[in-house]
Amino acid sequence: MHKAISNTTAILVFAASSHEEGKRKTIPQSQLLFKKLNQHTLTTVKKTKLPYYHFNETHQEGDNFGERFSNALKAIFDLGYEHVISLGNDTPHLTVSHIHTAMQCLENQKFVLGPSLDGGFYLMGIHKSLFNLKKFKQFAWQTDTLAKDISHWISGFEIEEVKLQQLSDLDHYQDVIRILRSSIYLPKHILKLLLNLSTLMQQVYKNIEAVVINYFSNTLFNKGSPYHYSF
């Protein structure tokens, strides 16, 4: 997991294993999907030539997401790095260019945020002088106001915030459809997997629809003999 320090900037890949993601996500075949997404993320990270550290559930410490993420950031800064670029594993549109842009911004004394459509972020680039363990643990993690809360906090410092392209992450089946409908390039193996998931879910919904229609047709609307009332 640990890489020798060869740069002032390191990447933190904060991502659970595919087995763990399979238990958390409400997407069909989540374990297979996140196995591919983990591979995609790490392949993308390696292409940057930056030192990186992958913190899955076996390396994370804390009682909740905020504590685990904040402690992971601290662990990287404690190794002596000046900047950390944090990433998840649920953004299939992530590219080397996103990471390189973040690195360049950090080297120019800027704060970087890659916002996601759900109100969180898929990338954050931060200098160690801005990192405050107590403050980070207090943010409303995994909410739709997280990115706004962080941007508001950053506005209190004399530092420019750079926002990268807004992207969609993968938490629910609706995210699969949203990503497929976007015009942003996807790696072929990820695109194929998402298309297969979409086809699978369409068939599931058709089966559910057929069951519901059958229920209403044969149960609710089959009233039997009419009632006779006496007045």
In short:
By secondary structure, the protein is an alpha/beta fold. It contains eight helices and six strands, in the order βααβαβαββααβαα.
> How much is the radius of gyration in Å?
23 Å
- Nearest-integer average pLDDT: 84
What share of the residues lie within helices? 40-55%
Largest sheet: 6 strands, mixed
Secondary-structure element pattern, one letter each? EHHEHEHEEHHEHH
Runs in which pLDDT lies below 50 for 5 or more consecutive residues are 2-6, 207-215, 225-231
**Bulk shape:** globular
Strand content: 5-15%
The total beta strand count reads: 6
Helix run count: 8
N-to-C span: 83 Å
Give me the side-by-side strand order of the main sheet: 2-1-3-5-4-6
Which structural category do the helix and sheet elements fall into? alpha/beta
Question: Topology, please?
Answer:
Layout: E1 9-14, H1 18-24, H2 30-47, E2 52-55, H3 65-77, E3 83-87, H4 96-107, E4 110-115, E5 121-127, H5 133-138, H6 146-154, E6 160-163, H7 173-181, H8 188-220
Parallel strand pairs: 1-2, 1-3, 4-6
Antiparallel strand pairs: 3-5, 4-5
Helix pairs in contact: 1-2, 2-8, 7-8
Descriptive overview:
- By secondary structure, the protein is of the alpha/beta class.
- It is built from eight helices and six strands, in the order βααβαβαββααβαα.
Can you tag this structure with a few keywords?
6 strands, 6-stranded mixed sheet, alpha/beta, disordered N terminus, 231 residues, single chain, disordered C terminus
